[in-house]
Amino acid sequence: MDGLLLNTEDLYTIAYQNILTPYDKEYTWDLKVKLMGLQDREAAKLLLSTLDIPLSVEEWMNAVKLQYEKIFPESQLMPGAKKLVEHLHKCNVPIALATSSTKEAYKIKTSKHHPGLFSLFSIKTFGSSDPEVKYGKPHPDIFLVTANRFPDKPKPEQCLVFEDAANGVKAGRAAGMQVVMVPDAKLDRSLTTEATLVLESLEDFKPELFGLPPYDT
Question: What does the pLDDT read at residue 217?
Answer without folding.
Answer: 56
